[in-house]
TrEMBL record:
PANTHER family: THIAMINE-MONOPHOSPHATE KINASE. The keyword Transport does not apply. Mg(2+) 1 binds at T46, D47, D122. Pfam families: AIRS (PF00586), AIRS_C (PF02769). Gene3D superfamilies: PurM-like C-terminal domain, PurM-like, N-terminal domain. Residues 28-137 form the PurM-like N-terminal domain. Mg(2+) 4 binds at D30, D75. Keywords: ATP-binding, Kinase, Magnesium, Metal-binding, Nucleotide-binding, Thiamine biosynthesis, Transferase. Mg(2+) 5 binds at D214. GO terms for biological process: thiamine biosynthetic process; thiamine diphosphate biosynthetic process. Substrate binds at H54, D262, Y320. HAMAP family: TMP_kinase (MF_02128). This is Thiamine-monophosphate kinase.
């Protein structure tokens, strides 16, 4: 069956998404109309995934649909926002109905899970690329920024770090991983879980936050620069999965955890005055954030210690940087 652009939109996007009460007009007109409650502010984030850069031809379409939403929701989570609406710009080399079925399945699953709605976008022909703009709301003045960390604040991370990086290395045959570990870390790579609920609960508690997308060290440096502070990290406290510790040497595992991208966990700071509130807040959570260090007054200085002694990365890589090197296929 030949598909025109509007046939594609009607078949795969218009009728398949749950409807939010605050969407007055969604897909099908020149623009969407939504309602933002009085007293709330709107947070807007955008992320693009390009074939051959962020994913390869073997990446399942469902994973691409999931991940392009997840990476945006992770940004919203870092600011404490509640996800509400997304718009999608999809560039396709041709109409592949099997691919579109998988892609929309992944996109629909994550949107429904987090309660956000696809309200519009654009489709065009060209090299495969996917861009999502996500919107979220939060009470006026409650956004968690990168610029609020103060000396003495405690530094936390969620989840385990480095799993997605190890999965990519295994897929590219740079590391050998057992089948059981490979299945788990590949799920972490393909289907990240943004920390949306925790992000909202950190409003008024965390002094700063960022999502870990380009590697812990690279992303933490944004907080240090924005807040004009330093940090001291105890690597003994860094949360590592069994996949890392049973596959790699200690130095290799730490390097993956510190520099690998695609974790989509949260890194945030909590003042001493809020630590009791925070401990109560996470007391009954299944996976508690881990305190890995403390903020110092040495602007942008980052100290790493292992068993109380200074530790340095065994290699120069400190995280993913766009445009830092020629394009190589990655996820």
């Amino acid at each position: 069956m030949a598909f025109a652009e509007f046939d594609l939109i009607d078949t795969y996007f218009s009728q398949r998404m749950e409807q939010r009460d605050d969407v007055e007009l969604g897909i099908g007109d020149d623009g969407a109309v939504v309602t933002v409650d009085a007293g709330n502010q709107l947070v807007v984030v955008t992320d693009t995934m390009v074939a051959g850069v962020h994913f390869d031809q073997d990446t399942p379409a469902r994973a691409i649909g999931h991940k392009v939403v997840a990476v945006n929701l992770s940004d919203l989570a870092a600011m404490g926002a509640e996800p509400t609406w997304i718009s999608l710009a999809l560039t396709l080399p041709s109409i592949d109905q099997d691919w579109l079925q998988g892609f929309t399945h992944g996109l629909r699953e994550i949107c429904e899970y987090y309660g956000c709605q696809l309200i519009g976008g654009d489709t065009t022909q060209g090299p495969l690329a996917v861009t999502v703009t996500a919107h979220g709301v939060l009470p006026h003045g409650s956004a968690i920024k990168r610029t609020g960390a103060k000396p003495g604040d405690w530094l936390y991370v969620t989840g385990t770090l480095g799993d997605a990086g190890l999965a990519l290395a295994a897929r590219q045959r740079r590391q050998q991983v057992s089948d059981a570990h490979y299945r788990r870390i590949t799920d972490r790579l393909y289907f990240p879980s943004p920390r949306v609920a925790l992000g909202q609960s950190l409003r008024g508690v965390a002094s700063s936050a960022i999502d870990v997308s380009d590697g812990l060290l690279a992303d933490l440096r944004h907080i240090l620069k924005g807040s004009r502070v330093g940090a001291k990290i105890s690597l003994d406290e860094l949360p590592l999965s069994l996949a890392l510790t049973e596959t790699l040497t200690q130095d290799q595992a730490l390097a993956y955890a510190l520099t690998s991208g695609d974790d989509y966990e949260l890194c945030f700071t909590v003042p001493e005055s809020q630590r009791g509130v925070f401990d109560t807040l996470v007391a009954h959570t299944a996976s508690k954030p881990v305190c890995i260090g403390r903020i110092t007054n040495e602007a942008e200085a980052l100290q790493l210690t292992l068993q109380g002694e200074p530790w340095q990365l065994p290699e120069t890589n400190t995280g993913y940087e766009h445009f830092a090197s020629p394009i190589e296929p990655s996820v």
